[in-house]
Design goal:
Number of strands: 25
Strand content: 25-35%
Distance between the termini: 60 Å
Helix content: 25-40%
Mean pLDDT: 81
Low-confidence stretches: 144-162, 345-350
Largest sheet: 9 strands, antiparallel
Radius of gyration: 28 Å
Length: 494
Amino acid sequence: MSIDLVENTQQVIKIVTQWLGEQRAYTSVPYRCSINGITPASYFVSVMRVHPKEIFVQEIFSSDVRGQIVYRSWTFRLEESWFIAALEHFSRAVPYGKIRPQMEDLVRRLELILELQSRGGSYFTETAAKAPQELSIDIPSDAELQRTGIISRFSHSFARHSVPYTVAAIALGILLLLGIHVLRIQSLEEQMSRSIRAYTSQMDHQVQDFISSTEKEIVELINNLQENRKNFNFDRQNAYISVTRMAEELAHYLPARKRAYRLIAENIRQANSYSEIFYEMTRLPTEEYQARIFLATDRQTVVPLSQSTPVFPSMYYPVKIEDEKNDGRGFRITDGYMDQRKDPVGTGGVTPHFAVDIINVSNISYVNHAGEIIREGKPPGQVVAAYQGRVIENAYDNRYGWFVEIEHPMIDEVKEKYPRAESWSTYYSHMDKQSPFLPGEDVEANQVLSPIGDSGKSTGPHLHFEVRVYSPEGRYITEGRHYDKINPFPEVDS
């Protein structure tokens, strides 16, 4: 190994071990860049300590257009010193002789991220300005793009384990024809042999459990999958049955986890490789709030708010993205009307949800190992009046945070559905700050009330939205007036 490659390798190890600390896995925040100079994207680095003598590093690009792309996968191993055991570029093995420019590019990117993380120094402003260009990539048209994840390097290892032997044979043939010195040939053979041994032994290494909070049974399933690669059909069916059984055993007050487990079980049943099974197993949520995030961000489950029809057709959607039309795009309902759910803030008990909770999913970059939504820096959206009316209450509540209730003029649509209705209103809570509209003031339809927030007892930024119909028979009462909470979005367009 050349001196500069050794020095660069040690520099990379120094940076990633600093990030890892005592943890097993680490993911950097995403940094803005572009793909092929056109497509907006974000770049981040994922690091995993497989065991004390092996570290796995992935460079990942994410964009709305192309999804998530594994740019490079690095395997570093420690013998007498740290060395590069394997490198894949767009999931293709990189010959040893072509590793040096790839390593120099990796060091440049990691040092740029370190400088951005420091957020100081006289050149920080200049560094931040040039970062999107420095972190951008060009993707060749024949590049094979793979799904992201620490375990993605296993998806093609069986099909490509013979590539290093072919490279070695070609290299040796060329060297013999050119008559290079015998000692040089022997040195090159030794280096190539070391790379080949590392690639062949790589298939026998077990993927370490990097989700410390998952249940013991999940870890056992992953280990069983690693130990029984030759019995793929049996293992896949066993994993499917096990996850399905776990879903059925979950209590009825954990509906989000039940639904997430069933969805993941079905994905496992349709998996075509062990890497797909491993990927689905690592997505199993261990907490109800993680399951809600999973269902809110997974492309298979997201139903846009724009496909939901308001209970009264003349109503606007109660949320929108700044400077964009109020069409429901970019948002989804996470908890629907009459959903049976356990109290999301841990007070206990199971109750029906007589409202809808709405979140912004348009600016989510990815979900980290802790199950937290990582956004691209844009705000979560705005709360707007669903219909014209007059503010009747504007206050703070320990549970619902900043809230506003707006009473609206009686319209034929309300009278037709609720003949005994005396009035109707809409209720907005968990807002980021107090609305500037005070009781008695008029608001127009689609007028901004406040940014979406997480004030009060909340699991994250969202809008809790209710439609109330006041009548003498109402089950709820406020200031001597009876009302019912009705479903704001009773229909979903197919």
